[in-house]
Amino acid sequence: MLNKIKRHKPHLSPAEQNVADWILDHPSEAIHSSLATVASAAGTSEPTVIRFCRSIGPSGFREMKLRLAETLSRPTSYMHRDVNPDDSVNDAVTKVMDRTIQAMIEIRSQTSSMPFEQALGAMTSARQLVFVGLGASGHVSRDACQKFFRLGIPCSFATDTPIIVQTAAVLGTDDVMVVTSHTGNWPDVVRAVNTATENGAFVIALTDPRSSLAAAASLVFECQSHEDTSIYTPMSSRLAHLALLDALQVVLALKMGQTAETNLQKSKRALAEAL
Questions:
Q1: Distances (CA, A) of 212 to 31, 141, 181, 184, 253
Q2: pLDDT tens sequence across 167-221
């Protein structure tokens, strides 16, 4: 949570930045303070503190304190947020599965408000699709590239900073960049997105809606996760991104109709013959 506050601070209002500064300077005190106390200490109002909480992700002051307390508590394990070192194998497996199921349910509840139609409009007429991501998101981007190219649209992926920034520099009108990022605040990725849009490319981002990446993208699929990737290896957030891209690939195939059907058949036939 402290890292998230630092990342969001430049985009906050001056009054909200005062709240951020006080919490960053007094994190332990903040988790035991009332809303009125934090507002007074930061020299601002209670509504401003609530706006600050919502600006950085939590739904309110109570949730912000809970997530701050979680950050300050030394984790008993870096393996998974729900798993304890003394859990049995069956308990650990169940907890991981339950967290994954919950992530899928949460993302499913948001799909009706996601901009699938706008994304399809850009992708069906695209000259090429470029899938971008760093770290765990890079694996998601590779996976998406392997699925989308079978529809007959030229696809590539960029999963390290030098390739990402160079790819963005040569994109142009009719090109679509699809960027996946849990935090949405990698400076080099945001800079690459700005370059791509300046060149006329259309950028679709799967990320936190309050992030720098979301602000720079042409279209945003809002993906918020309670997973703290500064401690744990991305799991549920990565799976949510994979599921969204799978769904986008399927609806794009439906939109393309017989062209996609024919290309999918050709790719499968070619693979079968090669084996």
A1: 27, 19, 11, 6, 31
A2: 999 999 999 999 999 888 889 999 999 999 999 999 999 998 888 999 999 999 9
Report H helices in the chain: 2-8, 14-25, 27-30, 35-41, 46-56, 61-72, 89-110, 116-124, 136-148, 161-170, 187-198, 212-216, 236-256, 258-274
Cα distance between residue 50 and residue 48, in whole Å: 5
What is the pLDDT averaged over residues 43-67? Answer: 92
Total-model pTM = 0.70
Q: Is 57 left (phi over 0), alpha (psi -120 to 50) or beta?
A: left
Q: Which domains does the chain have, with CATH numbers?
A: 2-72 (1.10.10.10), 115-274 (3.40.50.10490)
Average pLDDT over the chain reads 89
CA distance 179 to 138: 9
CB 207 within 8 A of CB 223: yes
Give the separation between CA 64 and CA 11, rounded to whole angstroms: 18
Place of tokens 């279209």: 219
Is the pLDDT assigned to residue 228 strictly greater than 70?
A: no
**Confidence label for 88 from pLDDT (cuts 50, 70 and 90):** confident
Chain position carrying tokens 């996946």: 180
> Which of 53, 57, 64 lies closest to 16 in space, CA to CA?
53
Residue type, 52: F
Do 82 and 98 contact (CB within 8 A), yes or no? yes
